[in-house]
Write a structure and sequence with these properties.
Chain A is an alpha+beta fold and 218 residues long. In chain A, 37% of the residues lie in helices and 24% in strands. In chain A, β5, α6 and β6 form a beta-alpha-beta unit. The two termini of chain A are 31 Å apart. The chains are: A alpha+beta (218), B alpha+beta (159). β8 of chain A pairs antiparallel with β5 of chain B.
Chain lengths: 218, 159
């Protein structure tokens, strides 16, 4: 999805000349076979990053209103991070539901090795309480973090992810653009892989246990 | 705002009246077929997304101009825009369905946002809706409410 503006232009042309079905299938086909170009050598189904990214050191508020230091409090865990918002129609809840369902099937000892962190990109509407209520739909252990728009954007950018964008809609509301990928940190506190939208439960079930024992050749 | 609210409640009322009418529905168009209908569970009980696939068997292009359902006072057709590694949704006023073509709504692509829900519904329930086409007129559909975890299965089945 990196050359998305080109994809969009191409897609609009396809809609006019070929038909929407083929273009949407094309878009979905890309989304549904994550990383098959880059991950083939590692066996992972996510997209392996060309350069691993360091776990950022930041503190935001959790859903209990307590400060949460990301680097310290996720140290030693496989940590999945996603930036999204609770009014998000499908990308955010489907990512969270898929991860929650797969983790639920893991044996207890394996399950303990993961932390899932959801950082809201919509601090005005997503109060910590609302965030908690929404996350509980997927897994009560998921960590919800809240901070100002600027703080959260700074964190996203420091992780190499795009900042979120707030787009006003005609009815006076707004919609939030956010990164579509889940970033996976391993126990070395580095993110080597991201998972785009379209990652299936089977992909998570395949990759997550391996990420728990991964030493990246060290 | 008041004007808008009036319009939307009138529309909802019309939809409700239509849904409860003892009259048989107008004959369905044979040119436009809608299948693979499903609705996401309303995660916060506030809003849900509806998906389907439209096949236009006619010789002429058609256009989806609106969607109504008794379960929501407001519906909006949204497109998910993927841009620079981000996703965001954007309302669209109508969508073309080319002659002999297909228009597929799916997570990460197009969806109908159901807002200001009027009825509670949960996974396993069925939801009725009417799609409004410029040429084919009204097409009534019915779809199952799915848990978010089951949506990827629906995607596979409808591919």
């Amino acid at each position: 999805m990196t050359t998305t503006s080109t994809v969009l232009v191409a897609r609009q042309r396809l809609i006019h000349f070929v038909g929407v079905a083929s273009s949407l299938c094309l878009a979905l086909a890309i989304a549904c076979t994550p990383g098959n170009d880059s991950a083939s050598s590692t066996g992972y189904r996510g997209r392996v990053l060309p350069q691993p990214r360091e776990k950022a050191d930041f503190t935001l508020q959790d859903t209990n209103g307590m400060p949460f230091n990301f680097r310290e409090q996720t140290d030693g865990y496989v940590t999945l991070v996603f930036f999204g918002y609770t009014y998000c129609p499908d990308v955010c809840p489907i990512h969270m539901a898929n991860i929650g369902a797969v983790l639920r099937d893991f044996p207890f000892e394996l399950r303990q090795q993961y932390k899932v962190v959801f950082i809201t990109t919509d601090p005005d509407r997503d109060t910590p309480d609302r965030l908690r209520q929404w996350l509980d739909n997927f897994d009560r252990s998921f960590i919800g973090l809240w901070g100002s728009e600027d703080e959260v954007n700074e964190i996203a950018v420091s992780l190499g992810l795009p900042a979120s964008v707030k787009v006003e809609t005609e009815d006076g509301g707004y919609t939030v653009g956010h990164s579509a990928s889940v970033m996976a940190f391993t126990k070395d506190n580095l993110a080597h892989i991201t998972y785009p939208f379209g990652t299936r439960q089977a992909d998570w079930a395949h990759d997550l246990p391996e990420l728990a024992t991964e030493s990246w050749g060290e | 705002m008041m004007f808008k609210a009036l319009i939307s409640s009138t529309a909802a009322l019309a939809a409700l009246t239509a849904g409860c009418s003892p009259e048989p529905p107008p004959p369905a168009s044979t040119d436009v077929e809608v299948s693979g209908v499903y609705i996401s569970e309303p995660a916060m009980g506030e809003r849900a997304a509806m998906y389907f696939t439209i096949v236009n068997g006619a010789d002429d292009a058609d256009e989806l101009v609106g969607v109504s359902t008794p379960v929501a006072e407001v519906t909006e057709i949204h497109q998910t825009i993927h841009e620079g590694g981000t996703v965001r949704m954007e309302p669209v006023s109508s969508l073309a369905v080319p002659a002999g073509g297909e228009l597929r709504f799916a997570p990460g692509g197009y969806h109908v946002m159901l807002l200001e829900l009027q009825e509670e519904f949960a996974p396993g329930d069925w939801v009725d809706a009417t799609l409004h086409f410029r040429q084919a007129g009204e097409v009534t559909i019915r779809g199952r409410v799915l848990k978010y975890v089951d949506i990827e299965k629906a995607l596979t089945e409808n591919q």
